[in-house]
Amino acid sequence: MSQTLFERLISGELPTKVIYQDELVFAFPDINPVAPTHVLVVPKKPIPRIAEAKEEDQVVLGQLLLKAASVAEMLGLEKTGYRLVINNGRDGGETVPHLHCHILGGRTLRWPPG
């Protein structure tokens, strides 16, 4: 099975700016930003999507959300607000089959989205 784009970024095979990483998660700028600040936080374990996460992924999922909040704060977004987005499946906007959380901020975000 071939590696996803995110696995190749995590391994260093493809270059990216590393915003944060620890043993469980990796954060980097989105290559197609839709907001002034658009960062992805991905688990290093390749979980295809949130609907395929298992009970044993609980620690990784918790770390994903906690570190997304930490990265948002590190980027100064806690002052004005930000949005966390997890897409699931084609109709949900998923384009890479590797679970990831979008951090969107730096402008007013409207509701409902898309």
How would you describe the overall organization of this protein?
- With 114 residues, the protein is α+β, with helices and mostly antiparallel strands.
- The chain has one domain: HIT-like (HIT family, subunit A).
- The protein is built from 2 helices and 5 strands.
- A 5-stranded antiparallel beta sheet has the order 1-2-3-5-4, covered by helices on one side.
- Strand 1 and strand 2 form a beta hairpin.
- The longest helix is centred in the middle third of the chain and has 17 residues.
- The radius of gyration is 14 Å and the shape is globular.
- The model has no long low-confidence stretch (mean pLDDT 96).
Task: Please name the defining characteristics of this protein.
5 strands, 2 helices, alpha+beta, five-stranded antiparallel sheet, HIT family, subunit A, single chain
Quick take:
With 114 residues, the protein is α+β, with helices and mostly antiparallel strands.
